[in-house]
What does this fold into?
Amino acid sequence: QNDMGADLAKVLISKDEIDAKLLELAERIDRDYAGKDLLLVGVLKGAVMVMADLARTLHSQVTMDWMAVSSYGMGTKSSGVVRILKDLDTDIAGRDVLIVEDIIDSGLTLSWLLGNLGSRRPASLEVCTLLRKPDAAKVEIDVKYVGFDIPNEFVVGYGLDYAEKLRNLPFIGTLAPHVYGG
Ligand code: PRP
Ligand code: MN
Ligand code: MG
It folds into this structure.
């Protein structure tokens, strides 16, 4: 039960690969937002690891805020119904905002979030995601910063959960089929 490895099929992206990719993304973000007062908006709970490591990789001073939304509940499929569990503390009108996500799967969560935050009149609104699943997209979203495009498999670790478990794996792995009844 407490052996995280038992529920995994394989390591998809190692911690070293994540670190190297975050360094690349951070360099681009530092360059693109030079001289600006960037607000990072992390999407709880999945984005906590990406946010923590990306923010510490940046050289620029940034501020951070968090929004909690959920569309998955306890299952492995997106319900498409997005709920706000915690809103931002910050008024983002006139701010340069970068949404930080762990994964874009169907795109439904982010598409809804872009509409919601966009209506608050930020000066700019972009997205940084560590992972994206091109084959699972139900809506097309323009994402400026993408770490890795991955196959349409259920992935866990580095913030990503299966029924709230396995978020604390330090790498990205794929879930063993026996875990979700495959
Ligand atoms: C996951 C993930 C993204 C979203 C992506 O969050 O962290 O936020 O789903 O899926 P989509 O592109 O199909 O909408 P989840 O709703 O599981 O909440 P969590 O971050 O608390 O795990
Ligand atoms: Mn999430
Ligand atoms: Mg989840």
In short: Residues 43-46, 70-72, 78, 101-110, 161 surround PRP (ligand 1) (CB under 6 Å).
